[in-house]
Amino acid sequence: MATAPCAHLDSVQLDQLPPEVPGCEDCLRTGDGWVHLRICLTCGHVGCCDSSPAQHATAHWHATGHPVVQSFEPGESWFWNYDLADGVDGPQLAPPTSRPSSQPTPGPQGRVPEHWTRELHR
Ligand SMILES: [Zn+2]
Ligand SMILES: [Zn+2]
Question: What is the pLDDT of residues 6-51, one digit of tens each?
Fold first, then answer.
């Protein structure tokens, strides 16, 4: 019997990421900053990782139940399933598969307090 693919990937509806997402949508709205970015593969929401103060990617999962995110960092292509609390294999997405590399990490530019590097969630 063949191994069944992760059923959660049925919820992945994106075959292409939004054309240009400069950063965490929620941080950009609230004026916060982020460390790393994750993109929801159900709806394309871009949120910040658990090392970020606001943890919007996890908050998005709590709010919507959308389980699978992909790293939105340049050079990273891994997937994470919040329901399983584990990494999963995912589909190959069409580019761009990351934030613009012009944005610094943490970001956005000029908005990240210096003390962050000491107070990040680990
Ligand atoms: Zn955020
Ligand atoms: Zn979503």
Answer: 445 555 555 555 566 789 999 999 999 999 999 998 888 999 999 9
In the numeric block, the tokens 């998005």 are attached to 60
Q: From CA 67, how far away is CA 8, in angstroms rounded? A: 7
* Residue labelled with tokens 């943890």: 55
Tell me the HSE value of 118 on the side-chain side, using a 13 A CA sphere.
Answer: 3
Cα–Cα distance for residue pair 35/57, rounded to 1 Å: 12
Q: What is the pTM of this model?
A: 0.71
Cα 79 to middle of ligand 1, angstroms: 18
Ranges of each domain in the chain: 10-102
Rounded to whole angstroms, the Cα distance separating 81 from 117 reads: 27
Tokens representing 117 are 């590097």
Number of the ligand closest to the Cα of 62: 2
Q: Which ligand is nearest to the Cα of residue 57, counting in written order?
A: 1
Give 62 Cα–ligand 1 centroid separation in angstroms. 14
- Evaluate whether the domain defined by 10-102 bears CATH number 3.30.40.10: yes
